Amino acid sequence: MDDAEKTCWLCLRELGRKVEWHHPVPKSRGGRATRPVHPICHRTLHVTFSNAELARIGEDVEALRGQAEIARFLAWIGNKPSDFHAPTRRKK
What we know:
Helix content is 36%, strand content 7%. The protein has 92 residues and is mainly alpha-helical. Strands 1-2 form a two-stranded antiparallel sheet. The longest helix has 10 residues, at 39-48. The termini are far apart. The model has no long low-confidence stretch (mean pLDDT 92).
């Protein structure tokens, strides 16, 4: 793994033992590029945004981080260990 793949694309924390690969533009929308993320970060992205929304945002991780729900998640997860896991709840 190179240095860019040692930190989570979304939260910027160091990656743990389990790494998932997120398609910023979903495969169903023609995306091919992947970015390393924690499983909890990956699940949060997919419960927060539809594939259409993710396709519109694409690689603009700052736009994702700027969304209120993601910003709250990032503030909460920021001091957790790399391998921290908790249930991910769907938005209401």
